[in-house]
Amino acid sequence: MSLLSTLVSQVINGLQSGSIYALVALGYSMVYGIILLLNFAHGDIIMVGAYAAWMCMVNFHLHPVVSILVAILASTLLGVIIEKVAYAPLRSAPRLSLLITAIGVSFLLENGAQLIFGAGAKDMSASMAMFTTGPSITLGSATLSFPALLTIVVSLISMAALTFLVQKTKLGKAMRAVSEDMGAAQLMGISLNSTISFTFMLGSALAGIGAILYLCAYPQVNPTMGSMLGLKAFVAAVLGGIGSIPGAMVGGFVIGLAEALVSAVGLSVWKDGVVFAILIVVLLVKPSGLLGHSTTEKV
Amino acid sequence: MKKILALTLAAMMSLSLAACGGSTGGSSAAAADEGTASATSEAAAGGEGTAASGGSIKVGLMVTTTGENAMYGNAVKNGARLYIDQVNAAGGVNGKQIEVVEYDDKGDATEAVTNFNRMLDDGITAVIGAVLTGPTIALADETYNINMPQISASATAAGVTVIDPTDPESEIRTNVFRACFIDPFQGEKMAEYASERLSATTAAVIFENGNDYSVGLKDAFVAKCEELGIQVVATEAYSTGDVDFRAQLTNIAGQNPDVVFSPNYYEDDGMIITQAREVGVTGTFLGGDGWGSVKNYASAEDLEGSVYCSGYAPGSSDAVKQFESDYQAAYGEDIPNMFAPLGYDAAMLMLNAIQAAEEQGLEACTDEYYQAVIDAMAATNGLEGITGSYQFDEQNNPIKSAAIMRLEGGDEVFTELF
C-alpha cells in the first residue's frame, strides 16, 4: 500500500469516528445552548439506546429496522424523563447543582446498566451485519467501507435536518429565543417547559441515532461505552464552540481526524492525550471555540 | 471507676486468649464429604471442634470467592475441591483424609496475609493459592519465611516464584510453585508456532498499552521473533477502553505482515479482528489465552484460521472428558473457564507431593515435612494433569505444552499440543 492510499484510509477512519463524535457533540451543544447545562449523562443515554437495540435484536429477535426505531425512541424517552425528574426541579438552583446532578445521573445509568446487564460486553456483530455489509467505494487502493459511508452520510443528513429545524421552524425559533433570554422568551408567550423538553428530546434522539451508528462501527455494547465517547464529544463541542451547531460538527470531525492522524504517524499510545491536550489549548487560547460567539458576562 | 474498667478489660483479654487457644487446637471445615460450593471460612474461623485426629492432613485453600474476580476464584476452588474430594473418597493420602481449610482473600493482599495466619492457627501443612497475582505474592512472602509448600493455580506474574524478576541473579522462592504457565511463555510459544507451523517471515503486534498481561506477551513475542528471524514490521498500541483500532490497523495493513499477534482479551480481540479485515489486513491472527470465547465477539469468516494458545483444551482427551463430566456432576454447571482445571491440577500436584512426604513417615507441620513436600514437588516429572503433563523448571514454573486452538467455522477447535 502506498503512502498516499494509507493517508487516504486514515482520513476515512478519522471521518467515520469523527461523524459519531459530531452527532454526540450536537446533543451536548443543544442542551448547553438552551439551559447552560453540561449534560454529562448524554454519553450514557447512548449506552441505554445501544442496550435497547441489543435487547430488541438479540433477545426479542425483532426486525433490525423496528429495533432501531425502538432504540431511538428509548433514548428520546429517557432524555425527556431525565430532564423532568432530575433537571426541571433544579431550574432556579445554582448551575453547579445542576452539573453535579448530571454527573449523578450518569453514574446512576452506568451502574444501573451494570446491575441489570452485567459488566461484560454484549456482541452484536451478527445482528448488525445487514448494516455493515453493502456497497463500498474504492478510492485508488483505499476503500471507503459501507459502514463508514453509512455513518458519514447519516450524520450529515441528521445535522442538515437539525440545522433546518432550528433555523426555519417555529419550534426552532422558540429554542433560539429561550437560549438567548429565558425570561424574555417566557414573557413573549413561549412555553419554557415544553421548549426545554423538546430540546432534550431532540438531543436524545440524536444520541439514539449515534448509538446505532456506533454499533455499526463497533458492534459491542457495554455499560461504560458512553463515558469515553461522551468525554471526547464534549471536547469536540468545546472545540467547535459550545452552543453552536455547525461548531459541534466541525469539532467532531477535527477530533476524529486528529485521533486517526496521531495513530497514523505511529503515536497511537498518545491518542487520548492529544484529544485532551486540544481541550486544554482551546480553553487557554480561544475559550469560545472555533465557531462560538464570545459573550461578555453581564454582572 | 477506673478499676472496674481495668478489670473488665483484663477479663475480656483473658477471654479472647482462651478463644485463640481454642481455635489453635481446633479445626477447620472439613469439606471431604461436602463437595458443595458453600463458603467454609466462617466455620473455620469459628474454631468449632470437629477435631483433627491423627487421621487427617490439613491443606490451606486461599481463594478469591467474593468481589469482581470471584468468577476466577470460585472456579479454582471448585476444581481444587473436586480433586481433593475424589482423593478422600478413594481413601485419602496414605490412609489419611485431606481436610481443606478455606479462606476468602477477597482479592486483597493484606487479607491474604491475615487469613494465612489464621490458617497456621488451624494447623495447615501446605497451602494452595492464591488466585490473583497480588495476594499470591503477599502469601508467597509469608510461606517463604517458614518454607511452607505453596502452589498457585493461576497467578501468572514472574514475581510469584522469583523475588525480583528484573534481576537474573534474583533469589528464587523455592517453596512456591504454580500450575499455570507464565505470561512470557505464551508469547514465545506463539512466535515459535508462527515460525514452525505458519512459516511466517513478517509479523505485526497490536497490544493494550498499560496492561501487564498484554505487554508481557508482546515483549516475549517480539524478542522470540527476533531470535527466530521473523521480522516485526509494526508494533501498535491502544489504550484501555478503546473501541476504534482502524487507524493502528491501517498502519499494519500497509506493511502486509504474514501474522498479526494480538495478545489481548477476547472482547477487544473480536473488535480488532473485525476492523482489521475491514481495513484490509489479511495476515493470520495469533493470540494468547485471553482469546478464550472470542468466537462470540466476531464473525466466523473474520476469525477463520486464527490461532491462539490456551492452558486448557476442552474435550481433548479421555481424562479431560472425565474431568468435565465429574465437574458437571459435582457442581451442576459446565467448566466456567480454564481456572477450574488449573485448580484441579494444583490440588493434584500438591497432594502428590504430600504423598511422598507421608511415605517417608514424617510428621506433618514440621520443617522436614515441608522440605520433603517441596522436594517431591520440584522433582515432579511428567505427572499428567488436565491441562498438560507437569514438570518444573529451575524457577518453579511448569514446563508443559500449550494447547493450540484454531478458529474453524466459528468454533474454537483444539488442534494440537505444541
Q: SSE string of chain A, helix = H, strand = E? A: HHHHEHEEHHHHEHHH
Q: Which regions of chain B have little confidence, pLDDT < 50, spanning 5+ residues?
A: 17-53
Largest beta sheet of chain B, briefly? 7 strands, mixed
Number of strand segments of chain A: 4
SS field, number of helical segments of chain A:
12
Distance between the termini of chain A: 59 Å
Beta fraction of the residues of chain A? under 5%
Which structural class should the secondary elements of chain A be placed in?
mainly alpha
Largest interface, C-beta within 8 A: A-B, 37 and 29 residues
Indicate the overall shape of chain A.
Answer: globular
End-to-end Cα distance of chain B: 76 Å
Low-confidence stretches of chain A: none
What general form of chain B does the structure show? Answer: elongated
| Record field, number of beta strands of chain B | 14
Alpha-carbon Rg of chain B, integer: 24 Å
What's the arrangement of strands in the largest beta sheet of chain B? 7-6-8-9-10-13-14
Q: What is the overall pLDDT average of chain A? A: 86
- Specify the oligomeric state: heterodimer
Largest sheet descriptor of chain A: 2 strands, antiparallel
Radius of gyration of chain A: 19 Å
N to C succession of SSEs of chain B: HHEHEHEHEEHEHEHEHEHEHHHEEEE
Can I get a quick summary?
The complex is a heterodimer of chains A (299) and B (418). Chain A has helices at 3-35, 42-59, 64-87, 95-117, 129-132, 146-168, 170-180, 182-187, 192-217, 225-240, 245-264, 271-285; strands at residues 122-123, 137-139, 142-144, 220-221.
Describe this protein's structure.
Chain A is mainly alpha-helical and 299 residues long. Chain A has 12 helices and 4 strands. Chain A has helices at 3-35, 42-59, 64-87, 95-117, 129-132, 146-168, 170-180, 182-187, 192-217, 225-240, 245-264, 271-285; strands spanning 122-123, 137-139, 142-144, 220-221. A two-stranded antiparallel ribbon of chain A has the order 1-4. A two-stranded antiparallel sheet of chain A has the order 2-3. Chain A starts with a helix and ends in a 14-residue tail after the last helix. In chain B, helix 7 (212-228) links the parallel strand 6 and strand 7 (231-238). Mean pLDDT of chain B is 83; it is low at 17-53. Chain B is of the alpha/beta class. In chain B, helix 3 (70-89) packs across helix 12. Chain B is built from 13 helices and 14 strands. In chain B, strands 7-6-8-9-10-13-14 form a 7-stranded mixed sheet, sandwiched between helices. Chain B has a 5-stranded parallel sheet with strand order 2-1-3-4-5, with helices on both faces. A two-stranded antiparallel ribbon of chain B has the order 11-12. Chain A binds chain B through residues 1, 6, 9-10, 13-14, 16-17, 119-121, 123, 125-126, 129, 143, 145, 147, 217-220, 222, 224-225, 228, 259-264, 266, 268-269, 271-272, and chain B through 68, 209, 236-239, 241-244, 246-248, 250-251, 253-254, 256, 267, 270-271, 274, 278-280, 296-299.
